[in-house]
Amino acid sequence: MSITCVLFWLLFIGHRLILYSASNGKCGPLSGFYAYFDNYIEVVFTAICTPIVMVILAYLLMRSVRDVIQRRIVPDNNGPLVNTAQRSVLQKIDSRLTLMLILQSFIAIITYTPYAAELIYTNVTQYWPKSPLQIAIEKVIVELIHLVSYTFFATSFYISLISNSGFRRQFIKFFRKRRHDDPTIHINTVFHTNTMTNISNRNKIIIHLEL
């Protein structure tokens, strides 16, 4: 399976190793028909297919998980009965998974839809006459859209942090443990304790001498 994936992506984007060239400090496709072909391939497979595949897989996964949970809650004649506590746990798992998949699909849509629109607009208007101000504004918008599209790859952590209470507990526990085991904190505590002890002893000696 892994070899098939490698061969697929090599055939799919391997042409860029040959038909891309550096121009004005940027690496891009050769001008002409190949530039249009490469841009629309990018639009279809990267910008449009990604959110569609995410939504379809999320729907199929939610339906599969709910079928499994439903069979656990309402077992067959030969299956064991599920008590109220187990049913509550299964329903919580279902709700958390549903929230996580919905958030992931929503983020995929809002990050890749502007990217697809930007690629289509750039491909259609690349030979239109534009003023320097319009070119500058479009460059700023393009960079902003690219930045938003990159955030999709960093949202899995935050989605897990929002939708999974167990993950949040482990995350907080990890940092509390790191803080508790930090040798700097321990050294500072010992130093502060020793300092206060020395000051207290010195005050006792001074009081004793005065008496």
Automatic annotation (TrEMBL):
UniProt keywords (A-Z) are:
Membrane, Signal, Transmembrane, Transmembrane helix
The signal peptide here is: 1-22
Any keyword Transmembrane?
A: yes
Question: Superkingdom, according to UniProt?
Answer: Eukaryota
Q: Which residues cross the membrane?
A: 40-62, 97-117, 147-167
- Name by which UniProt lists this protein: G-protein coupled receptors family 1 profile domain-containing protein
Q: What organism, scientifically named, is this protein from?
A: Rotaria sordida
